[in-house]
């Protein structure tokens, strides 16, 4: 119960801070919407083409929107010194880190999940693909946050770590992008997608189990360096 209380306290704290910085929370969602709405303007009003590339457009936009918000995961805590207090806490650092990642997903991944159906309809995505799109986003965006947390922890002590962060996490994001967009595309064609969904579930479970520990270790290295 003590661990659960510590976890919920971190989540609640980060959500309260996010509500005080509404503009920062809105940036990834606005970026997500803007990128998707620019595609029809760039390639023209071609319904069949837009429908064919809609899964890739939505998932690439979600990936970039998540990356846009990653730097804020530990940056403010590092700057004001509260990250050191978190690391000195008697509770396992990995549990507290998982709480911060959960709060990050609630303020970034969940809003993307909410607005994605409207944008999918805008791109002409088939109705049978909408449920699979939501399922892949629900499984994939937490993976993006978990993997990204490791990269942020490694670069949080650097003044200009944005480029290094991109180089670290983008190759790890590629499998999520491939399997998620392929599942949505195959669902639109009426083909089975159980294999892709099972792979995403496995990746999410692995990330939940494995990501908090290297993230905690990387934060300690960044603080001590």
TrEMBL record:
InterPro entries listed in its UniProt record? Cyt_c_biogenesis_CcmB, Cyt_c_CcmB_bac
> What is one GO cellular-component annotation here?
plasma membrane
**According to its UniProt record, where is this protein mainly located?**
membrane
Q: How does it sit in the membrane?
A: Multi-pass membrane protein
Any GO BP: cytochrome c biosynthetic process
Write out the annotated subcellular location.
Cell inner membrane
Molecular function in Gene Ontology: heme transmembrane transporter activity
Q: Does the keyword Membrane apply?
A: yes
- Work out whether the entry's keyword set contains Acyltransferase: no
Its keywords, alphabetically, are: Cell inner membrane, Cell membrane, Cytochrome c-type biogenesis, Membrane, Transmembrane, Transmembrane helix, Transport
Transmembrane region positions? Answer: 25-43, 49-70, 105-125, 131-156, 163-181, 193-213
Q: Which Pfam families match?
A: CcmB
Function, as annotated, reads: Required for the export of heme to the periplasm for the biogenesis of c-type cytochromes.
Similarity comment text for this entry: Belongs to the CcmB/CycW/HelB family.
Name of this protein: Heme exporter protein B
From what organism does this protein derive? Methyloglobulus morosus KoM1
């Amino acid at each position: 119960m003590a661990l659960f209380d510590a976890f919920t306290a971190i989540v609640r704290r980060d959500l309260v801070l996010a509500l005080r910085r509404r503009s920062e929370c809105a940036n990834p969602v606005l970026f997500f919407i803007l990128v998707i709405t620019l595609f029809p303007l760039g390639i023209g009003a071609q319904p069949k083409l837009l429908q064919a590339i809609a899964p890739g457009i939505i998932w690439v936009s979600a990936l970039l929107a998540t990356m846009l918000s990653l730097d804020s995961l530990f940056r403010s805590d590092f700057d004001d010194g509260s990250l050191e207090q978190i690391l000195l806490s008697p509770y396992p650092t990995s549990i507290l880190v998982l709480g911060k990642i959960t709060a990050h997903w609630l303020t970034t991944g969940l809003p993307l999940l909410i607005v994605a159906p409207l944008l999918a309809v805008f791109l002409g995505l088939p109705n049978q693909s909408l449920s699979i799109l939501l399922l892949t986003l629900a499984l994939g965006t937490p993976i993006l946050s978990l993997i990204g947390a490791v990269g942020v922890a490694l670069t949080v002590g650097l003044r200009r770590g944005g480029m290094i962060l991109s180089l670290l996490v983008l190759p790890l994001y590629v499998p999520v992008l491939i399997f998620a967009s392929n599942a949505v595309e195959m669902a639109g064609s009426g083909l089975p997608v159980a294999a892709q969904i099972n792979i995403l579930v496995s990746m999410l479970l692995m990330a939940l189990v494995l990501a908090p520990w290297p993230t905690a270790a990387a934060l300690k290295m960044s603080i001590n360096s």
